[in-house]
Amino acid sequence: MDLTTLNELTYGLYIITSVDQGRCNGFTADAVFQAGANPPTIGVCIKKDNLTHDFISKNQVFAVSILADTAPAELIRHWGLRSGRQEDKCVDTEYKTGATGCHLITKDTLGAIECKVINAFDAVSHTIFLGEVVSAETFSGGEPLTYAQYRKNIKPALKQTDSKGGAMKKYRCVVCDYIYDPAAGDPDSGIAPGTPFEKIPDTWVCPICQVDKSNFEPLD
């Protein structure tokens, strides 16, 4: 099966945030869609072991900040390749607090939509949350960032990661170019820092695009 065919599906790229007791967390995502018009409803699909999933499940609110096509690679790296269990991602980020308490990313975004969860559906490794829109605002003009633009213009820059792996080899996802660094692990998925790729359970999936281990290749 050629899972690279999934790259041909059209998506945007977004930062999904939620809040718990005043603490923000979020991540970059492409699985965002409008599910209804009256009332306006947004759907997001989130991996169950993601910290933001925990926040949304507990507090029933989320926000979607729409990335502009001028968004830099570093912004994608900051929100997509770091763990909110280890650091506060909202530090050094320009944002405003919305009506739901969620952080709305205001730099390099076109606008943001806030939602209150009205339903949730199990999707095996993920949950699909449906949220009624309670607030929406535009920050700037421009064009939204698409997944195709990300693959062409941004993901090459994301390959330039810091070397932290020591003697342990890093592995790259052939679908989205996420790099598994053994020194960092994948704490959001229960993989502790210092875990070699070979020791990761076969049930583990890429935290960005959710393909399995067979779609990773070692970095030279």
From TrEMBL:
Keywords: Electron transport, Iron, Metal-binding, Transport. The keyword Protein biosynthesis does not apply. Its cofactor is Fe(3+). The keyword Electron transport applies. Residues 168-219 form the Rubredoxin-like domain. InterPro entries: Flavin_Rdtase-like_dom, Rubredoxin-like_dom, Rubredoxin_dom, Rubredoxin_ET, Split_barrel_FMN-bd. It holds the Pfam family Rubredoxin. Coiled coil: none annotated. SMART domains: Flavin_Reduct. GO terms for molecular function: electron transfer activity; FMN binding; iron ion binding; oxidoreductase activity, acting on the CH-NH group of donors, NAD or NADP as acceptor. GO terms for biological process: alkane catabolic process. Belongs to the rubredoxin family. This is Rubredoxin. The lineage of its organism: Bacteria, Candidatus Edwardsiibacteriota.
